[in-house]
Amino acid sequence: GAVVSQHPSWVICKSGTSVKIECRSLDFQATTMFWYRQFPKQSLMLMATSNEGSKATYEQGVEKDKFLINHASLTLSTLTVTSAHPEDSSFYICSARAQEPQFPQPQHFGDGTRLSIL
Amino acid sequence: AQKITQTQPGMFVQEKEAVTLDCTYDTSDPSYGLFWYKQPSSGEMIFLIYQGSYDQQNATEGRYSLNFQKARKSANLVISASQLGDSAMYFCAILGSARQLTFGSGTQLTVLP
Question: Are residues A104 and B50, on separate chains, in Cβ contact within 8 Å?
């Protein structure tokens, strides 16, 4: 089945540093990538949608300059949290979709990244 | 706009018993899909089951079945013969014309030995 690899799984860093999270589709071409943020015991909230070669579309309330998304190829999307602060600590999950989504699973999820900012 | 409502923040079930997790939805799309995902404490999203809005029969996948009542706009997940490994967060989600999943708030299921 379709596999999405997300790296790193865990990251702990100091306040003020930038953190890059990678999301790769290993065996299919992901024309669309989704980035979600999840706080403990809460739901997945969509942050942004990116299409390969285009600028990402951000959801209302998500700071574009804080969360930089790049989708330069059909197999790789990155999320960079710039100048991270403790309030950015969260669980980030990516999801990938092919141009012609296959049901019953039109989207495939990475395993997520736990980000802790000290 | 799409919306998923899961009214049970937490549920307990005895091992080997069946449990129903509630999900209601709201959408103006004539065609849509409903999904259930399991999220264990490790965080990964595990796809469980899918129901298309035009599917005549309720979806089943092993111990999972989806009780789809279109007129009531409900898509409840039934887990039969619960196992300790079923303890996790469960999310209902809908996919419509916007082509992006909308998730409910989730239900934390605990299976008791």
Answer: yes
Q: Which of B47, B50, B103 is opposite residue A44, by nearest beta carbon?
A: B103
The answer to whether B96 faces chain A, any CB pair under 8 Å, is no
Cis peptide before B9 (omega within 30 of 0): no
pLDDT in tens, B62-108: 999 999 999 999 999 999 999 999 999 999 999 998 889 999 999 99
Q: What is the CA radius of gyration of chain B?
A: 13
pLDDT in tens, chain A (118 residues): 789 999 999 999 999 999 999 999 999 999 999 999 999 999 999 999 999 888 999 999 999 999 999 998 999 999 999 999 999 999 999 999 988 888 888 999 999 999 999 9
The pLDDT value given to residue B98 = 84
The closest of B32, B33, B30, B60 to B48, measured between CA atoms, is B60
Beta strands A19-25 and A4-7 are antiparallel
CA of A89 to nearest chain B CA: how many angstroms apart?
A: 15
CA distance B37 to B55: 19
The pLDDT assigned to A54 comes to: 87
- Interstrand relation of B101-103 and A45-51 (parallel, antiparallel or unpaired): unpaired
Q: Give pLDDT tens digits for A103-113.
A: 888 999 999 99
**Three-state SS annotation for A65-115:** CCEEEEEEECCEEEEEECCCCHHHCEEEEEEEEECCCCCCCCCEECCCEEE
